[in-house]
Design goal:
Blueprint: E1 2-6, E2 12-17, H1 20-23, H2 29-43, H3 102-118, E3 122-125, H4 135-145, E4 152-155, H5 161-167, E5 173-175, H6 183-187, E6 191-195, H7 196-209, H8 213-216, H9 226-245, H10 247-254, H11 256-263, H12 265-275
Parallel strand pairs: 1-3, 3-6, 4-5, 4-6
Antiparallel strand pairs: 1-2
Length: 276
């Protein structure tokens, strides 16, 4: 698949060949959905708070007696069934965030960009020569390329302060270096504008992530030489011989426990059996 490469004036200056299957052999809609839901959940502040009947202002006195008035029975005015009362199921501050496995998120990012490339929604530009913060330069560039009326994601190879300051004030335009892209930031806008260096960096990162685990595994430390193992076993044998002939072994063989064992009923039965 060939993508057109434009310059800052909107003229086509070349083409870029890429196969979406190189980034992701297949696109899993379920994985993309899970990743987008996770990112949106992590964006929630979770600072909602309402009052229960124990927190609202008001007396706890019973409004009127239980029987004899003809009205329905009622308790305090702070009840959740009355106007001005507390909420029965009051909202509390909570954290809505959760995380997916890192490799799943990396795969979702690759799938998202592969899907946008396959749908012809990615434009390429050869460079972003912004010497000073100037919003008019970026706005004119987007209009010349034909994506000035849409929500756009601008993805340079790395963070450029001048380019970010030039694009941040345009409505519907977001800027994110290629290393910070995720499934939500790729799927949200209507169009994506990347530099050729940025898409090269993305392809290199995708290739590194797709390497087999055997290639990424760190080599194990080498085993000790045979002579060293032999000396270690020899020293271990000497230690065991010292253990069998040391003072502790002598105390064990001549202690009270050994005497009880040799003169107990079991020993007498054994000697009688041998005599017969």
């Amino acid at each position: 698949m060939n993508l057109a490469v434009y310059d800052i004036a909107g003229k086509q200056v070349g083409s870029y060949e890429i196969d979406p299957a190189e980034l992701a052999p297949k696109v899993s809609k379920q994985l993309l959905h899970d990743a987008v839901v996770m990112y949106q959940a992590n964006l929630r502040q979770g600072t909602q708070k309402t009052k229960t009947r124990g927190e609202v202002a008001g007396s706890t006195r019973k409004l009127y007696r239980q029987k004899g008035t003809g009205n329905a029975r009622a308790g305090a005015r702070r009840s959740g069934t009355r106007r001005g009362g507390g909420h029965i199921f009051a909202k509390r501050p909570r954290d809505f965030g959760w995380r997916m496995p890192r490799k799943s998120l990396q795969a979702a990012t690759r799938m998202a960009l592969a899907a946008r490339i396959a749908d012809d929604e990615v434009r390429l530009i050869d460079a972003l020569p912004v010497a000073a913060p100037k919003t008019a330069v970026v706005a004119k560039m987007l209009k010349a390329i034909g994506i000035g009326e849409r929500t756009v994601l601008l993805a340079p190879e790395r963070h450029d302060a001048n380019f970010w300051k030039s694009a941040r004030n345009i409505a519907g335009v977001s800027v994110a270096p290629v290393a910070e892209l995720n499934a939500l930031s790729i799927l949200q806008p209507r169009s994506i504008l990347m530099t050729t260096a940025a898409i090269d960096a993305f392809r290199a990162a995708a290739k590194a992530q797709a390497r087999p685990a055997a290639e990424r595994k760190v080599a194990k430390p080498a085993k000790a030489p045979a002579a060293k193992r032999a000396s270690a076993s020899k020293s271990g044998g000497a230690a065991s011989s010292r253990k069998s002939s040391g003072p502790a072994a002598a105390r064990k063989s001549s202690g009270p426990a050994a005497a009880r064992k040799s003169s107990g009923p079991a020993a007498a039965r054994k000697s009688a059996k041998e005599a017969t």
